[in-house]
Amino acid sequence: MNSYNENLHSEIVTSLNNQEIELKKLKGQYDASLLSLYYAEGSRMTAAEKLADANSELKDQENISEQAVIDSDISTNVVRSATNAKDQVATTVTNTAVAAANVQIATNAIVKLASDTGSIYSIVQAANFGGEIYDQSQTVKANMDITAYQAELASQHSMEASATIAEVATSTVADKATATDTSIKTLLDTATAELTAATDTVTASSTDLATANNVEKKAEGDLETVNATKIAAEASYVVSNQELNLNLSVALPTVTPTKSAEKEKYTVSFNAFLSPFPKEDKTTVPPTYTPIQPVDNYYLFLVKNDAKKTFATVNAENIISKTNDTDKKFFIEISAVDDAASYSQEIVVDKLLDSDGEEFVLGDNYVVFMYANLKADYKKKINTFDNYLTAPSATFTVRNLLNVPSNTAVTPSGIPPTKLTDANTSSEDKGPQKLTFSVNQAVVTTKVDYRCIFLPDNKELTKGLLTIGELCAIEAPVSTASQIQDIEETITKLTTEVKGFESDVEKIIKKIEKGAGGKATPKSTAAIEKLKAEKASIDDALNLLIIEIEALEKKKEKLHQDPSGIEVPEHNHTEYEIPGFCFDLSIAEKIPAGSYTPAGESSTGTGGYSIELKSNMTDNFGNRLKKGSSYIPVILAISSDSEKNNKTITNALSDFKKTAPFKKQ
Q: Over the stretch 426-472, which tens digit does the pLDDT of each residue have?
């Protein structure tokens, strides 16, 4: 390899390596910022929930205080009435006793007079029986007897009235009314104090919420900044890898093997190595150029990440000189195909040895190199007789994927059937609430714990919080600008081609006009017809370019008017609200003990689990599950094996976006 190629290759390797290191650094910052935002959102939600509880308590205290004021007013009036009654009754007792005594005196006088009248009547009866005086005395005696009787009754009634009024316990009533009023006043003071405390709590909770909001928004900004930088770095690496390293990349498996005999795989892909001197076809107008692939064979090598800096062409050639075994290969050979634009090769982990001749180890870091064996005539043409070795691919690690827990549900859900996403779940079921889920354990080869996590499902609490889906959508304007720039570059290129075609058309027209002005001969006539055919062909090509330019101009204008028309991965906005805050596998793995519930052993022994919900269970932020609040159950499958085995495992999280919520009973 000449010095220019060596320097160029070294610069490419260094550039891609530096970009990969920067990407790893940004990924670490992104994970840290995401976790910080998660806890900030949790603090904000907790503060909002406390404020809601404080407002509810304040409302209750206002009602209690209002009723206490009413009761205090009534109690004051009762005390006043009881005091007045006590005073009036005391006066009445005195007056009634005096009246009874006076009535008794009068009665005694009347009785004495009646006795005297009886004596007179006896004397008159004896002295003048049947006379006029006798008749009058008899009448007087009868009237006096009646009067005496009535006087005795009046005396009796007055004594009874005096005794009865004396029995009225107004003093006791007044004392009890006073004691009750004192208690009511104490209750009023207590209610007022609690109302003041509740008001202070609301004020403090509002301050806490404002503080939590500020912290959360700052965390959002930090994450968005890091995310934008990470996306830019990723795009930069992708472009650099495409342009400088034949887009050499490794795709990892996304599903777990369904049979224990199946092995993990990874897929290596790269673009074809093309000559900078394409094949020109002058028989067409305009001339066409076909890319040339000056390669006999491509070779793929697996290299430990630690050894990528020292892996060079000589190492690749030494490995190629070895003979591949049927089962264990030192390299993968791919025959070049002339019209192939790219290549893709699926590799089973135990079928390809690394550059040191050692077997692939799950959990270790590797890179892939591609070596192109160039054709001899191409080497002569460029006067360089070295073959081509790419820079290393991005570092990759293959791990076992744990099975994703499925069929996650809580029954009874506590939610009316009309509001359930799962029509089979009924709130009419009786008995305690139970969380159930299942796991396909057929190919599990490690110790696995299942953690039950309950995510709050309250849109009022999560309103305005950033989610991971929305974080992806935020970067749309950046992609819009990039698309507009690409369109403008394409338009400029096509416009240049149009001008070239227009110049060719003008030249042909002049030739035709010149030929038509001379004497017509069969040869000149054939030449003119040929020129006309060329002009028609160029006109057609010109018209197609103009149509393409117009379409690109319309697309550019549309993107200017509506950036949402950008071609980016679609996100269902309803999914952004589930659970309404940042949450994914990386966060679930970092939830501390006390914020999840271990599932324990399988209740069926075949991968089915059932856990009864208890009053002491908590949500993912460590808050006690509240009766009447909605939650989304999530199951984290996490390896609990030794550290050595853990690095070979990728944990799994159930699909909480498609899991029906439940209401704690």
A: 444 567 899 999 987 655 567 888 999 999 988 777 777 777 777 76
Are residue 558 and residue 464 in the same domain, yes or no? Answer: no
State the amino acid at position 168 in one-letter form: V
> Which residue range forms the structural domain that includes residue 593?
406-471+572-663
State pLDDT tens for residues 610-665.
899 998 999 999 999 999 899 999 999 998 877 777 788 889 999 998 899 999 98
**Pairing label, strands 400-401, 649-650:** parallel
pLDDT for residue 132: 84
For residues 104 and 111, what is the distance between their CA atoms, to the nearest angstrom?
10
**What span, in angstroms and rounded, lies between the C-alpha atoms of 399 and 251?**
13
Query: Do the Cβ atoms of 277 and 381 come closer than 8 Å?
Result: yes
Give the 3-state secondary structure percentages of the chain, helix then strand then coil, rounded to 5: 55, 15, 30
Q: Are residues 71 and 114 in the same domain?
A: yes
With contact defined as beta carbons under 8 Å apart, do 441 and 254 qualify? no
The structure tokens listed for 310 are: 């020292």
> Are 71 and 172 part of one and the same domain?
yes
In a domain, 212, yes or no: no
Same domain, 44 and 9: yes
Model confidence pLDDT, tens digit, residues 272-308: 999 888 887 777 666 777 888 999 999 999 999 999 9
What is d(CA 580, CA 462) in angstroms, rounded to the nearest whole number?
5
CA distances (Å), origin 355, targets 303, 305, 316, 449: 5, 11, 8, 36
Domain end residue (candidates: 565, 592, 609): 565
pTM above 0.85, yes or no: no
Indicate the average pLDDT of the chain.
83
Q: How many CA atoms lie within 13 A of 619 on its CB side?
A: 22
pLDDT score of 569 more than 80: no
**CA-atom Rg of the chain in angstroms:** 51
Do 148 and 11 share a domain, yes or no?
yes
pLDDT value at position 488? 67
Is residue 317 a part of any domain in this protein?
yes
C-alpha–C-alpha distance, residues 648 and 287, integer Å: 55
Q: Residue 235 and residue 103: Cα distance in Å, rounded?
A: 118
The residue behind tokens 């908590």 is 618
Spatial separation of the C-alpha atoms in residues 185 and 73, rounded to whole Å: 9
230 lies in a domain? no
Q: CB within 8 A of 222, min separation 6: which ones?
A: 33, 36, 37
Q: Which of 38-52, 271-285, 341-355, 380-394 has the lowest mean pLDDT?
A: 271-285
